[in-house]
Design a protein that fits this description.
five-stranded parallel β-sheet, 9 helices, Trp Operon Repressor, Chain A, 16% strand, 250 residues, 35% helix, tRNA_m1G_MeTrfase_C_sf, two-stranded antiparallel ribbon, alpha/beta, Alpha/beta knot, tRNA processing
């Protein structure tokens, strides 16, 4: 996958040279090209914004450099253009899965009071927000999107099944995880995880995942199509709620 990121702050993208994203780039699974929008201005001050017609506070990103930057990146190809903006759809794991199937993406980092509407209407394929709060610009959301998408690229993780077990991968929160030592400050690892009984472990993990989702994000359960086993587990949870503070649960 190749991702072109259009920004007025290219220096912010150093984190994309670390961790899983770095390994994906080193393996040739991912190519990230950070493009400075100011390189596509045509005035000596490299101006990318101007006052809004009709008045009002703040500045608006000008259409000319945005159009030029995207058209140069596309080079005649039809490539999805994602605008990172508070006005977009809230980013979800489903969005990440859809975007991970693309061979190329162009991400545009919005700023100021937004972009000229003509760029949005003519060029932008999709608008994405990472949450209902205010950030300085689209750079951090772009990095979040790249990280979430990279994890889904085949071969990016040491074990591809890891991405399927993450929270939200199946529309549920992840079950509790434990590692060594077995006993720490009088807190014990649940016995079922030490049993070697893979079916019992799978059942426990599914139950804990459903219980944690029911407790913390019940809205996710409302959207999910539950299997007969899931419904049975939820009945058990309602009858006897797990105590997440008791590490001997299970």
């Amino acid at each position: 996958m190749r991702v072109d990121i259009l920004t007025i702050f290219p220096e912010m993208f150093k984190p994309l040279e670390e961790s899983i994203i770095k390994r994906a780039r080193d393996k040739g699974l991912l190519s990230v090209n950070v493009i400075d929008i100011r390189e596509y201005t045509q005035d000596k001050h490299r101006k990318v914004d101007d006052y809004p017609f009709g008045g009002g506070a703040g500045m608006v990103m000008k259409p000319e450099p945005l159009f030029r930057a995207v058209e140069n990146a596309c080079d005649g190809e039809n490539i999805p253009v994602v605008l990172l903006t508070p006005q977009g759809e809230t980013f979800t794991q489903e969005h990440a899965q859809q975007l991970s199937r693309q061979e190329r993406l162009i991400l545009v980092c919005g700023h100021y009071e937004g972009v000229d509407e003509r760029f949005r209407e003519r060029i932008v394929s999709q608008e994405i927000s990472i949450g209902d709060y205010v950030l300085t610009g689209g750079e951090l959301p772009a990095m979040v999107l790249v990280d979430a998408v990279t994890r889904l690229l085949p071969g990016a993780l040491g074990d591809d099944s890891s991405s399927q077990e993450d929270s939200f991968a199946e529309g549920l929160l992840e079950y509790p995880q434990y590692t060594r030592p077995r006993s720490f400050r009088d807190m014990e690892v649940p016995q079922v995880l030490l049993s070697g009984n893979h079916e019992a472990i799978r059942y426990w993990r599914r139950k804990m995942s459903l219980a944690r989702t029911d407790k913390r994000r019940p809205d996710l359960l409302e959207k999910k199509i539950l299997s007969p086993e899931d419904r049975k587990l939820l009945m058990e949870i309602k009858d006897t709620p797990p105590n997440f503070g008791n590490n001997n649960e299970g």
